Amino acid sequence: MKPSIYGLTYLELETWCLTHGFKAYHAKNTFRWLYKKRVSSFDMMSDLSLALRQAYDEHFHMEGLVEIDKQVSSDGTRKYLLQLDDQSMVETVLMVQPYGYSVCISSQIGCNMGCAFCASGLIKKSRDVRADEMVRQLMHVQKDLDHDEKRVSHMVVMGIGEPFDNYDHVMNTIRILNHDLGLAIGSRHMTVSTCGIPQGIRKFANEPFQVNLAISLHAPNDELRSSIMPINRAYPLKELMSAMNDYFKVSNRKVTYEYILLKDVNDSVAHAKELAALIRGQHVYVNLIPYNKVEEQPFEQVSSKQAQLFFETLRKSGITATLRMEHGADIDAACGQLRSKKLKGCQI
Question: Which pTM does this prediction carry?
């Protein structure tokens, strides 16, 4: 199949135009048609020459992703199950936040990280998601929002997969969506979440954009973290914290530690104090997340009272924290749930 034009960064499209006998400025007009006017065919790009439109049609396609299923929560969360060109499926989630509309995209087909509490790893990774496929995830949501005259304001790479295991495609996705002639999502309105790959963290620190970094931490010591996050056996907390110190020296950007509260696993006051001691002095805040129940996993959601106690313990220990409100509790909210059900032939 021809490659998707949504996979080209602005500079790559300029280069393509020049090498195929067209002008560099044609990339500007093309980006406007793709991301501002959001047309569905090259023929609709009416101010481009017929020769250029025919060249695009010969070399690229601009098909969107196929929507297999869509769930809408009472809180406004929308969860999409989208089919890619090779029939693989990914999940994409729209969350309504006080600050705007945030889209969570997936970066891999399945996940090999094996986190014990996560639905994403129920089906192992088959391949990486290309840049055009990540862009098209977000474009699918934006076109849905167009019916309400709303726009995507934030993007997080926190769906299925480990972004730093698909580094180049994730970075190109950011370049495309951040471009002024693209969807123009501000770099500080973008976040990439990793389970903690030191070499990826160090590389990300040297990127020229101000994209936020989030670390899926979920435990304050090696024994507990290794039991629920196998990645910690390869990169224990000492190595992760060393990479974080290097990140802060280079970027000086604030980092989010994601911490899913699991009942009677990592939610005690002692765990909160241990977490505070681990990260004290770092330029971070902790995002405490209610656990979304996954049928195949044994974990349970912590009570509101215990979550508040954990939060207050961090606060009294001098750690900035937020207790994230739950999204999509009445749909298959956890990353990977909807895809897993579909692949296993369950009723959705």
Answer: 0.92
